[in-house]
């Protein structure tokens, strides 16, 4: 992490350090626990929908962040789920329009 702070050696957020710490001792997580990918794909930025069934965690992994899309008035269909938790919510976020 010291090297990363001085010179960027990876570009995948927090995943590489976690993988190093866990040393491969990982298991897949069912989609009902981690609905990942809501930030869209990192190439075209396309929106993604929710997996069917119950979900415990909404994860906007990827480049598209709901606060940026809401502020730009170009939200994806799932971004409204994040809006109630926006501590800096401005009056321009209106979902009744």
TrEMBL record:
One cellular-component annotation, GO: Golgi apparatus
A molecular function GO annotation: glycosyltransferase activity
One Pfam family in the UniProt entry: Glyco_transf_8
Keyword list, A-Z: Glycosyltransferase, Transferase
Enzyme Commission designation: 2.4.1.-
Membrane topology value: Single-pass type II membrane protein
SUPFAM superfamilies in the record: Nucleotide-diphospho-sugar transferases
Major localisation: membrane
Pathway(s) served: Glycan metabolism; pectin biosynthesis
Coiled-coil boundaries: none
Family: Belongs to the glycosyltransferase 8 family.
Protein name as catalogued: Hexosyltransferase
Organism this protein belongs to: Sesamum angolense
């Amino acid at each position: 992490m010291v090297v990363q702070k001085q010179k960027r050696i990876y570009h995948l957020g927090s995943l590489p350090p976690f993988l190093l710490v866990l040393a491969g001792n990982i298991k897949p997580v069912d989609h009902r626990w981690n609905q990942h990918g809501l930030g869209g794909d990192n190439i075209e930025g396309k929106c993604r929908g929710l997996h069917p069934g119950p979900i415990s965690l909404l994860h906007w992994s990827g480049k598209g962040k709901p606060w940026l899309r809401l502020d730009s008035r170009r939200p994806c269909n799932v971004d409204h789920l994040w809006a109630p938790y926006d501590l800096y919510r401005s009056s321009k976020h209106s979902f009744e329009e």
